Automatic annotation (TrEMBL):
Designated name of the protein: Pimeloyl-ACP methyl ester carboxylesterase
UniProt source species: Couchioplanes caeruleus
GO MF, one example: catalytic activity
Organism placement in taxonomy: Bacteria, Bacillati, Actinomycetota, Actinomycetes, Micromonosporales
PANTHER family given in the database record: HYDROLASE ALPHA/BETA FOLD FAMILY, PEROXISOMAL MEMBRANE PROTEIN LPX1
Domain AB hydrolase-1: 22-249
């Protein structure tokens, strides 16, 4: 599926199935394939559209602002009938911003651990060593620093993930991941704005995720007027890979609630 965004850059997405539309916005270091295991379980009942986010389109120039990404989401949403947004991590922040820009275009959202700013910047000075590592041609080290100091994964898990960044496919994404964090920081604390969103939302978190992600969900839950919360026991920040069936069931349940 292709649609022309406001700046005439083509937005690209994988469009499958029939029924009420679901527009999926993947998280960092990913592309439209990241949620295929989830949407494979939904496309027999719903029209699932997986956007390849502009931030992670290495064929497009950087830097990419959140407003640029909102334009891409809007271009795809214009081809659909008030889709429900499913956003993961930074993609969930993008979902919130898309709904703020034009709430009438969307039917609601499922937000999986959006790292919204609630106090100090998400990355801020903690990104400086990662940027320095990139400048030295060490994307694996840059990713390790980002995952350890910003995402707050364990040092061992961050180091293991950093090993994959030597492959060119992932080196390019490390640059975009740091840009993604900067784009979220550029928004600042938007809780007062999000409180104006009168749309149904499901907030999902894992009990094995870094603690700060739960705190950010707490802050959102307090301000969103029509949100409910779901905790995925035994899961962390990557249930789209580890428990796609459970995520698909949660999304399907939310979609069915909207019909009643």
């Amino acid at each position: 599926m292709r649609a022309t965004a406001i700046d005439r850059t083509m937005a690209e997405a994988v469009d499958e199935g029939l029924g009420a539309p679901i527009l999926v916005l993947h998280g960092g270091m990913a592309d439209s394939m990241a949620w295929h295991a989830v949407t494979d379980r939904l496309r027999d009942r719903f029209r699932t559209v997986r956007l390849h986010r502009r931030q992670y389109r290495t064929d497009l120039p950087r830097p990419v602002t959140m407003a640029d990404e909102v334009d891409h989401v809007a271009a795809i949403a214009a081809e659909l009938d008030r889709p429900v947004l499913v956003g993961h991590s930074s993609g969930a922040v993008l979902a919130l911003e898309a709904m703020l820009a034009d709430p009438a275009c969307y039917g609601g959202a499922v937000l999986y651990e959006p790292p919204v700013v609630i106090g100090e910047p998400l990355g801020g000075d903690r990104l400086l060593p990662a940027r320095a590592a990139l400048a030295d041609g060490k994307p694996g080290k840059a990713l390790t620093v980002f995952l350890r100091d910003v995402v707050r994964m364990s040092p061992a898990a961050a180091a293991a993930a950093g090993l994959v960044a030597g492959h060119r496919r992932y080196r390019d994404r490390v640059v975009r991941q740091l840009d993604d964090s900067d784009a979220i920081d550029a928004l600042g604390n938007r809780l007062d704005e999000y409180a104006k969103l009168d749309l149904p939302m499901l907030l999902i978190g894992g009990d094995r995720s870094p603690r700060h992600l739960g705190e950010r969900l707490d802050a959102l839950e307090r301000v969103l007027p029509r949100a409910r919360r779901m905790l995925m026991h035994g899961q962390g920040h990557n249930a789209e890979r580890r428990a796609p069936g459970r995520l698909a069931a949660a999304i399907a349940g939310f979609m069915e609630e909207l019909d009643h």
